[in-house]
Amino acid sequence: QVQLVESGGGLVQAGDSLRLSCAASGRTFSSYTMGWFRQAPGKERYMVARISGSGGSTYYTDSVKGRFTISRDNAKNTVYLQMNSLKPEDTAVYYCAARIAGTYNYNYWGQGTQVTVSS
Fold first, then answer.
1. Shortest CA distance to 59 belongs to which of 45, 46, 73, 47?
2. Residue 27 scores a pLDDT above 80
3. Residue 89 pLDDT class (50, 70, 90 cuts)
4. Lower CB count within 10 Å: N or C terminus of the chain?
């Protein structure tokens, strides 16, 4: 079992930066691939970024490439999402999620943190 708790959301202006954090419980954090997802009102949730257990492999959806950076600190059981040059279209609830490396489904989810970007 893995429990995930996000933090760091808030209300910012376009062009500002935010860093989201996701703290995980458990002793095998490095065996989990971690993802950040977002869901805007009336829209489906989708993956924004993903990082492998070792941190050596990352993925970004096209709309955030060059602006967002995912990273992790396995000693602290924490994954981060650094968001720069924020745009109003980045407004959403952001969720972190975990899946066992080598599997497909994200079985563990945080409660979400709201990010609102004003123009």
1. 47
2. no
3. very high
4. N
- Counting other chains too, the contacts that 51-60 makes at CB distance below 8 Å and 24 or more residues apart are 51/79, 52/101, 53/101, 54/30
What are 13's two structure tokens? 């202006």
The reported pLDDT for the residue numbered 103 is 87
- CA Rg value for the chain: 13
Tell which residue, 71, 78, 41, 68, has the closest CA to residue 56.
71
Burial string for 60-71 (b: 16+ CB within 10 Å, else e) reads beeebeeebbbe
Q: Quick one: 6 exposed, middle or buried, by C-beta within 10 A (0-12, 13-18, 19+)?
A: buried
